[in-house]
Amino acid sequence: MTLNELPAWIAPVLLLMALAGCVYALLAAALVGRFAARRSPLLAADAPRPGVTILKPLCGLEPDLFENLESFCRQDYAGAVQVVFGVQNAADPAIAVVERLRAAHPALRLDLVVDASQHGSNRKVSNLINMSENIAHEVVVLADSDMSVRPDYLERIVAALSQPGVSGVTCLYHGVPGNRGVFAQLAALAIDVQFVPNVILGTSFDLARPCFGSTIAMTAESLARIGGFRAFKDDLADDYAIGEALRAEGGTVAIPTFTIGHACVDTELAGLWRHELRWNRTIRNVDPKGYAGSVITHAVPLALLAALLPGAGSGALAVAALALACRILLCLRIERAFGLAPHAYWLLPIRDMLSFINFTWSFVSGAVTWKGHDYRVVADGTLIPEHGLGRESRATSA
Protein backbone atom coordinates (compact mmCIF):
# COMPACT_ATOMS: atom_id res chain seq x y z
CA MET A 1 0.00 0.00 0.00
CA THR A 2 1.33 3.44 -0.97
CA LEU A 3 0.79 6.68 0.95
CA ASN A 4 -1.81 7.80 -1.59
CA GLU A 5 -3.85 4.65 -0.92
CA LEU A 6 -4.21 5.36 2.80
CA PRO A 7 -7.61 6.56 4.05
CA ALA A 8 -8.07 10.33 3.76
CA TRP A 9 -9.18 10.66 7.41
CA ILE A 10 -5.74 9.78 8.81
CA ALA A 11 -4.16 13.14 7.96
CA PRO A 12 -6.86 15.26 9.67
CA VAL A 13 -6.62 13.07 12.78
CA LEU A 14 -2.86 13.55 12.90
CA LEU A 15 -3.30 17.31 12.50
CA LEU A 16 -5.84 17.41 15.33
CA MET A 17 -3.36 15.52 17.52
CA ALA A 18 -0.63 17.99 16.55
CA LEU A 19 -2.87 20.94 17.46
CA ALA A 20 -3.61 19.27 20.79
CA GLY A 21 0.14 19.06 21.24
CA CYS A 22 0.43 22.81 20.65
CA VAL A 23 -2.15 23.46 23.37
CA TYR A 24 -0.26 21.06 25.63
CA ALA A 25 3.00 22.96 25.07
CA LEU A 26 1.41 26.33 25.82
CA LEU A 27 -0.25 25.00 28.97
CA ALA A 28 3.02 23.43 30.09
CA ALA A 29 4.82 26.75 29.54
CA ALA A 30 2.33 28.51 31.80
CA LEU A 31 2.54 25.85 34.51
CA VAL A 32 6.36 25.85 34.46
CA GLY A 33 6.34 29.53 35.38
CA ARG A 34 3.87 28.95 38.22
CA PHE A 35 5.88 26.00 39.52
CA ALA A 36 9.19 27.86 39.58
CA ALA A 37 7.58 30.90 41.25
CA ARG A 38 6.39 28.87 44.25
CA ARG A 39 8.21 29.55 47.50
CA SER A 40 10.22 26.55 48.73
CA PRO A 41 10.07 25.68 52.44
CA LEU A 42 13.01 26.79 54.56
CA LEU A 43 14.32 25.60 57.91
CA ALA A 44 14.39 28.18 60.68
CA ALA A 45 17.89 29.46 61.40
CA ASP A 46 17.82 27.98 64.90
CA ALA A 47 16.13 24.70 63.93
CA PRO A 48 18.18 21.53 64.48
CA ARG A 49 19.73 19.99 61.38
CA PRO A 50 19.48 16.19 61.42
CA GLY A 51 22.46 14.13 60.30
CA VAL A 52 22.37 13.09 56.65
CA THR A 53 23.80 10.04 54.91
CA ILE A 54 24.21 10.43 51.13
CA LEU A 55 24.34 7.17 49.18
CA LYS A 56 26.29 7.18 45.91
CA PRO A 57 26.28 3.88 43.98
CA LEU A 58 29.10 3.92 41.43
CA CYS A 59 29.98 1.88 38.36
CA GLY A 60 32.95 2.85 36.26
CA LEU A 61 34.70 6.08 35.43
CA GLU A 62 31.99 8.35 34.09
CA PRO A 63 32.82 11.74 32.54
CA ASP A 64 33.06 14.52 35.17
CA LEU A 65 32.62 11.95 37.95
CA PHE A 66 34.95 13.74 40.38
CA GLU A 67 33.26 17.12 39.82
CA ASN A 68 29.76 15.68 40.15
CA LEU A 69 30.55 13.79 43.35
CA GLU A 70 32.47 16.71 44.84
CA SER A 71 29.42 18.95 44.52
CA PHE A 72 27.78 16.74 47.16
CA CYS A 73 30.86 17.16 49.37
CA ARG A 74 30.68 20.97 49.26
CA GLN A 75 27.40 21.50 51.08
CA ASP A 76 26.53 24.49 53.25
CA TYR A 77 24.73 22.35 55.80
CA ALA A 78 25.12 22.69 59.57
CA GLY A 79 24.31 19.07 60.43
CA ALA A 80 26.55 16.02 60.24
CA VAL A 81 27.07 14.66 56.72
CA GLN A 82 28.27 11.22 55.67
CA VAL A 83 28.75 10.14 52.07
CA VAL A 84 28.76 6.40 51.33
CA PHE A 85 30.15 5.30 47.97
CA GLY A 86 29.58 1.77 46.72
CA VAL A 87 31.16 -0.35 43.97
CA GLN A 88 30.79 -4.04 43.14
CA ASN A 89 34.23 -4.58 41.62
CA ALA A 90 37.50 -4.15 43.51
CA ALA A 91 39.13 -3.03 40.25
CA ASP A 92 36.50 -0.36 39.52
CA PRO A 93 38.29 2.86 38.47
CA ALA A 94 35.70 4.88 40.43
CA ILE A 95 37.58 3.85 43.59
CA ALA A 96 40.45 6.14 42.60
CA VAL A 97 38.00 9.03 42.33
CA VAL A 98 36.75 8.32 45.86
CA GLU A 99 40.34 8.39 47.12
CA ARG A 100 40.82 11.78 45.44
CA LEU A 101 37.72 13.04 47.22
CA ARG A 102 39.02 11.75 50.55
CA ALA A 103 42.28 13.62 50.02
CA ALA A 104 40.45 16.81 49.04
CA HIS A 105 37.98 16.65 51.96
CA PRO A 106 39.78 15.05 54.93
CA ALA A 107 37.30 16.48 57.46
CA LEU A 108 34.28 14.90 55.77
CA ARG A 109 33.21 11.35 56.49
CA LEU A 110 33.51 9.52 53.16
CA ASP A 111 32.96 5.76 53.37
CA LEU A 112 33.63 3.25 50.60
CA VAL A 113 31.91 -0.13 50.31
CA VAL A 114 33.40 -2.68 47.91
CA ASP A 115 31.09 -5.69 47.73
CA ALA A 116 30.37 -7.91 44.73
CA SER A 117 27.25 -9.50 46.27
CA GLN A 118 24.37 -9.62 43.81
CA HIS A 119 20.91 -9.75 45.39
CA GLY A 120 18.68 -9.44 42.33
CA SER A 121 18.64 -8.47 38.67
CA ASN A 122 18.89 -4.72 39.37
CA ARG A 123 22.63 -4.17 39.89
CA LYS A 124 22.25 -0.63 41.19
CA VAL A 125 19.86 -1.79 43.92
CA SER A 126 22.19 -4.66 44.81
CA ASN A 127 24.90 -2.05 45.27
CA LEU A 128 22.58 -0.03 47.52
CA ILE A 129 21.77 -3.13 49.60
CA ASN A 130 25.48 -3.66 50.15
CA MET A 131 25.96 0.00 51.10
CA SER A 132 22.97 0.30 53.42
CA GLU A 133 24.72 -1.36 56.38
CA ASN A 134 26.90 1.76 56.61
CA ILE A 135 24.06 4.28 57.00
CA ALA A 136 24.87 6.31 60.11
CA HIS A 137 22.33 9.15 60.17
CA GLU A 138 18.64 9.92 60.49
CA VAL A 139 18.09 11.21 56.94
CA VAL A 140 19.05 9.14 53.89
CA VAL A 141 19.57 10.78 50.50
CA LEU A 142 20.08 8.59 47.45
CA ALA A 143 21.40 10.37 44.34
CA ASP A 144 22.72 9.05 41.03
CA SER A 145 26.41 9.49 40.30
CA ASP A 146 25.85 11.71 37.25
CA MET A 147 24.12 14.49 39.21
CA SER A 148 25.62 17.81 40.28
CA VAL A 149 24.13 20.13 42.91
CA ARG A 150 24.51 23.58 44.40
CA PRO A 151 25.84 24.15 47.95
CA ASP A 152 22.34 24.71 49.38
CA TYR A 153 21.06 21.35 48.07
CA LEU A 154 21.01 19.46 51.39
CA GLU A 155 19.53 22.41 53.28
CA ARG A 156 16.64 22.61 50.83
CA ILE A 157 16.10 18.85 50.67
CA VAL A 158 15.97 18.52 54.47
CA ALA A 159 13.61 21.51 54.66
CA ALA A 160 11.23 19.85 52.19
CA LEU A 161 11.41 16.52 54.02
CA SER A 162 10.61 18.21 57.34
CA GLN A 163 7.21 19.46 56.13
CA PRO A 164 4.06 17.85 57.58
CA GLY A 165 2.79 14.91 55.55
CA VAL A 166 5.98 14.50 53.51
CA SER A 167 7.50 11.02 53.55
CA GLY A 168 9.97 11.51 50.71
CA VAL A 169 11.58 14.14 48.49
CA THR A 170 12.67 13.86 44.88
CA CYS A 171 14.14 16.41 42.45
CA LEU A 172 13.62 17.59 38.91
CA TYR A 173 16.82 17.81 36.93
CA HIS A 174 18.11 19.67 33.89
CA GLY A 175 20.58 18.55 31.26
CA VAL A 176 24.26 19.53 31.41
CA PRO A 177 25.79 18.82 27.97
CA GLY A 178 29.17 20.41 28.69
CA ASN A 179 31.29 20.59 25.55
CA ARG A 180 30.55 17.06 24.36
CA GLY A 181 28.95 17.91 21.04
CA VAL A 182 25.61 17.68 19.33
CA PHE A 183 24.38 14.38 20.80
CA ALA A 184 24.91 15.62 24.35
CA GLN A 185 22.98 18.76 23.42
CA LEU A 186 20.16 16.61 22.05
CA ALA A 187 20.12 14.65 25.30
CA ALA A 188 19.90 17.89 27.31
CA LEU A 189 17.02 19.11 25.14
CA ALA A 190 15.11 15.88 25.79
CA ILE A 191 15.42 16.46 29.53
CA ASP A 192 14.72 20.19 29.58
CA VAL A 193 11.98 20.50 26.95
CA GLN A 194 10.26 17.12 27.28
CA PHE A 195 10.90 15.55 30.67
CA VAL A 196 10.67 18.67 32.87
CA PRO A 197 7.43 20.16 31.47
CA ASN A 198 5.79 16.73 31.25
CA VAL A 199 6.45 16.15 34.95
CA ILE A 200 5.24 19.60 35.98
CA LEU A 201 2.05 19.31 33.94
CA GLY A 202 1.43 15.74 35.07
CA THR A 203 1.83 16.54 38.75
CA SER A 204 -0.20 19.76 38.45
CA PHE A 205 -3.24 17.74 37.36
CA ASP A 206 -2.46 14.74 39.58
CA LEU A 207 -1.83 12.60 36.50
CA ALA A 208 1.66 11.51 37.57
CA ARG A 209 3.26 10.27 40.79
CA PRO A 210 6.98 10.54 40.02
CA CYS A 211 10.09 9.72 41.98
CA PHE A 212 13.49 10.08 40.34
CA GLY A 213 16.93 8.61 40.90
CA SER A 214 18.28 12.16 40.73
CA THR A 215 17.32 12.42 44.40
CA ILE A 216 15.31 10.26 46.76
CA ALA A 217 15.36 11.55 50.34
CA MET A 218 13.68 9.81 53.25
CA THR A 219 14.33 9.01 56.87
CA ALA A 220 16.21 5.85 57.79
CA GLU A 221 13.09 4.82 59.70
CA SER A 222 10.94 5.14 56.56
CA LEU A 223 13.48 3.14 54.56
CA ALA A 224 13.27 0.35 57.09
CA ARG A 225 9.45 0.42 57.07
CA ILE A 226 9.25 -0.05 53.31
CA GLY A 227 11.51 -3.10 53.51
CA GLY A 228 14.85 -1.47 52.77
CA PHE A 229 16.37 -1.55 49.31
CA ARG A 230 16.00 -5.32 49.17
CA ALA A 231 12.31 -4.87 48.37
CA PHE A 232 13.27 -3.37 44.98
CA LYS A 233 16.08 -5.72 43.92
CA ASP A 234 14.39 -6.83 40.68
CA ASP A 235 12.60 -3.61 39.64
CA LEU A 236 13.59 -1.75 36.49
CA ALA A 237 11.95 1.45 37.77
CA ASP A 238 13.38 1.15 41.28
CA ASP A 239 13.10 4.91 41.88
CA TYR A 240 9.40 4.90 40.99
CA ALA A 241 8.80 1.81 43.13
CA ILE A 242 10.52 3.43 46.13
CA GLY A 243 8.31 6.50 45.71
CA GLU A 244 5.17 4.37 45.61
CA ALA A 245 6.27 2.52 48.74
CA LEU A 246 6.87 5.81 50.57
CA ARG A 247 3.41 7.07 49.56
CA ALA A 248 1.91 3.82 50.81
CA GLU A 249 3.19 4.81 54.24
CA GLY A 250 0.64 7.63 54.17
CA GLY A 251 2.77 10.59 53.06
CA THR A 252 3.59 12.43 49.87
CA VAL A 253 6.76 12.64 47.80
CA ALA A 254 7.56 16.34 47.52
CA ILE A 255 9.28 17.98 44.54
CA PRO A 256 11.09 21.22 45.48
CA THR A 257 11.01 24.12 43.03
CA PHE A 258 14.58 23.84 41.77
CA THR A 259 16.46 21.56 39.43
CA ILE A 260 19.79 19.82 39.80
CA GLY A 261 22.23 19.03 37.00
CA HIS A 262 22.29 15.77 35.04
CA ALA A 263 25.48 15.15 33.05
CA CYS A 264 24.63 14.36 29.42
CA VAL A 265 27.60 12.30 28.28
CA ASP A 266 26.51 10.69 25.00
CA THR A 267 28.86 11.52 22.14
CA GLU A 268 27.30 9.22 19.54
CA LEU A 269 23.81 8.42 18.30
CA ALA A 270 23.88 4.77 19.39
CA GLY A 271 24.47 5.59 23.06
CA LEU A 272 21.81 8.32 23.04
CA TRP A 273 19.33 5.95 21.41
CA ARG A 274 19.92 3.17 23.98
CA HIS A 275 19.56 5.49 26.97
CA GLU A 276 16.37 7.07 25.73
CA LEU A 277 14.90 3.74 24.70
CA ARG A 278 15.45 2.43 28.24
CA TRP A 279 13.88 5.56 29.72
CA ASN A 280 10.89 5.29 27.38
CA ARG A 281 10.33 1.61 28.08
CA THR A 282 10.58 2.27 31.80
CA ILE A 283 7.90 4.98 31.58
CA ARG A 284 5.77 2.77 29.33
CA ASN A 285 5.93 0.00 31.91
CA VAL A 286 5.11 2.31 34.86
CA ASP A 287 2.20 4.13 33.17
CA PRO A 288 1.18 2.47 29.89
CA LYS A 289 -1.98 4.55 29.32
CA GLY A 290 -0.31 7.84 30.12
CA TYR A 291 2.66 6.92 27.96
CA ALA A 292 0.46 6.09 24.98
CA GLY A 293 -1.44 9.35 25.48
CA SER A 294 1.81 11.30 25.43
CA VAL A 295 1.88 10.82 21.66
CA ILE A 296 0.29 14.29 21.38
CA THR A 297 3.46 15.85 22.81
CA HIS A 298 5.16 14.96 19.50
CA ALA A 299 3.32 17.71 17.65
CA VAL A 300 5.99 18.60 15.08
CA PRO A 301 6.50 15.02 13.78
CA LEU A 302 2.74 14.39 13.75
CA ALA A 303 2.14 17.47 11.59
CA LEU A 304 5.00 16.60 9.23
CA LEU A 305 3.73 13.05 8.92
CA ALA A 306 0.26 14.38 8.09
CA ALA A 307 1.75 16.59 5.38
CA LEU A 308 2.90 13.46 3.54
CA LEU A 309 -0.57 11.92 3.48
CA PRO A 310 -3.59 12.52 1.23
CA GLY A 311 -6.20 14.83 2.68
CA ALA A 312 -3.77 16.98 4.63
CA GLY A 313 -4.15 20.11 2.53
CA SER A 314 -1.87 23.11 2.58
CA GLY A 315 -2.44 23.70 6.27
CA ALA A 316 -0.29 20.77 7.43
CA LEU A 317 2.99 22.65 7.10
CA ALA A 318 1.43 25.64 8.87
CA VAL A 319 0.50 23.38 11.78
CA ALA A 320 4.07 22.03 11.82
CA ALA A 321 5.42 25.60 11.95
CA LEU A 322 3.00 26.46 14.77
CA ALA A 323 4.06 23.35 16.69
CA LEU A 324 7.72 24.26 16.35
CA ALA A 325 7.02 27.83 17.53
CA CYS A 326 5.25 26.41 20.61
CA ARG A 327 8.24 24.18 21.33
CA ILE A 328 10.64 27.12 21.11
CA LEU A 329 8.39 29.18 23.42
CA LEU A 330 8.31 26.31 25.92
CA CYS A 331 12.10 25.98 25.75
CA LEU A 332 12.54 29.72 26.41
CA ARG A 333 10.13 29.56 29.31
CA ILE A 334 11.98 26.68 30.95
CA GLU A 335 15.35 28.38 30.51
CA ARG A 336 14.06 31.52 32.20
CA ALA A 337 12.17 29.73 34.98
CA PHE A 338 15.16 27.65 36.11
CA GLY A 339 18.03 29.92 35.09
CA LEU A 340 19.38 27.57 32.41
CA ALA A 341 21.79 28.44 29.62
CA PRO A 342 20.20 28.93 26.17
CA HIS A 343 19.89 25.84 24.01
CA ALA A 344 20.71 25.45 20.33
CA TYR A 345 17.15 26.04 19.11
CA TRP A 346 17.93 24.80 15.61
CA LEU A 347 18.24 21.33 17.14
CA LEU A 348 14.60 21.29 18.31
CA PRO A 349 13.06 19.81 15.13
CA ILE A 350 15.81 17.17 15.02
CA ARG A 351 15.20 16.46 18.69
CA ASP A 352 11.47 16.11 18.12
CA MET A 353 11.87 13.73 15.20
CA LEU A 354 14.34 11.56 17.09
CA SER A 355 12.05 11.47 20.14
CA PHE A 356 9.07 10.42 18.03
CA ILE A 357 10.97 7.58 16.36
CA ASN A 358 12.26 6.37 19.74
CA PHE A 359 8.77 6.67 21.23
CA THR A 360 7.33 4.55 18.41
CA TRP A 361 10.11 1.93 18.61
CA SER A 362 9.63 1.57 22.38
CA PHE A 363 6.42 -0.37 21.73
CA VAL A 364 8.23 -3.05 19.69
CA SER A 365 9.74 -5.04 22.59
CA GLY A 366 10.69 -4.90 26.26
CA ALA A 367 14.44 -5.34 25.78
CA VAL A 368 16.73 -2.79 27.45
CA THR A 369 20.48 -2.29 27.80
CA TRP A 370 21.65 -0.97 31.16
CA LYS A 371 25.28 -0.40 32.18
CA GLY A 372 26.40 -2.76 29.42
CA HIS A 373 24.00 -5.57 30.42
CA ASP A 374 21.01 -6.79 28.40
CA TYR A 375 17.62 -7.40 30.05
CA ARG A 376 14.03 -8.16 29.26
CA VAL A 377 11.28 -6.33 31.16
CA VAL A 378 8.33 -8.53 32.08
CA ALA A 379 4.78 -7.38 32.73
CA ASP A 380 5.20 -6.64 36.43
CA GLY A 381 8.18 -4.34 35.78
CA THR A 382 10.92 -6.69 36.92
CA LEU A 383 14.16 -7.26 35.05
CA ILE A 384 15.31 -10.61 33.67
CA PRO A 385 18.92 -10.81 32.41
CA GLU A 386 19.27 -12.04 28.84
CA HIS A 387 21.16 -15.37 28.87
CA GLY A 388 22.21 -14.60 32.47
CA LEU A 389 25.20 -12.53 31.34
CA GLY A 390 25.62 -8.97 30.07
CA ARG A 391 28.15 -7.37 27.81
CA GLU A 392 31.07 -5.66 29.46
CA SER A 393 31.39 -2.05 28.36
CA ARG A 394 32.57 1.31 29.53
CA ALA A 395 30.15 2.58 32.18
CA THR A 396 27.78 5.28 31.07
CA SER A 397 25.25 7.41 32.95
CA ALA A 398 22.15 5.62 34.08
What does this structure look like?
It holds the Pfam family Glyco_transf_21. This is Bacteriohopanetetrol glucosamine biosynthesis glycosyltransferase HpnI. Strands 3-2-1-4-8-6-9 form a 7-stranded mixed β-sheet, sandwiched between helices. With 398 residues, it is an alpha/beta fold. The chain has helices spanning 10-37, 65-73, 94-104, 123-131, 153-161, 182-204, 220-225, 238-248, 269-286, 288-293, 299-307, 315-338, 348-361; strands at residues 52-57, 81-87, 109-114, 139-142, 147-148, 166-170, 172-176, 216-219, 252-254, 259-263, 367-370, 373-377, 383-385. It contains 13 helices and 13 strands. Helix 1 packs antiparallel against helix 11 (299-307) and helix 1 (10-37) runs parallel beside helix 12. It is globular, with a radius of gyration of 22 Å.
Strand-helix topology:
Blueprint: H1 10-37, E1 52-57, H2 65-73, E2 81-87, H3 94-104, E3 109-114, H4 123-131, E4 139-142, E5 147-148, H5 153-161, E6 166-170, E7 172-176, H6 182-204, E8 216-219, H7 220-225, H8 238-248, E9 252-254, E10 259-263, H9 269-286, H10 288-293, H11 299-307, H12 315-338, H13 348-361, E11 367-370, E12 373-377, E13 383-385
Parallel strand pairs: 1-2, 1-4, 2-3, 6-9, 7-10
Antiparallel strand pairs: 4-8, 5-10, 6-8, 11-12, 12-13
Protein name: Bacteriohopanetetrol glucosamine biosynthesis glycosyltransferase HpnI
Membrane topology: Multi-pass membrane protein
InterPro entries: Ceramide_glucosylTrfase, Hopen-assoc_HpnI, Nucleotide-diphossugar_trans
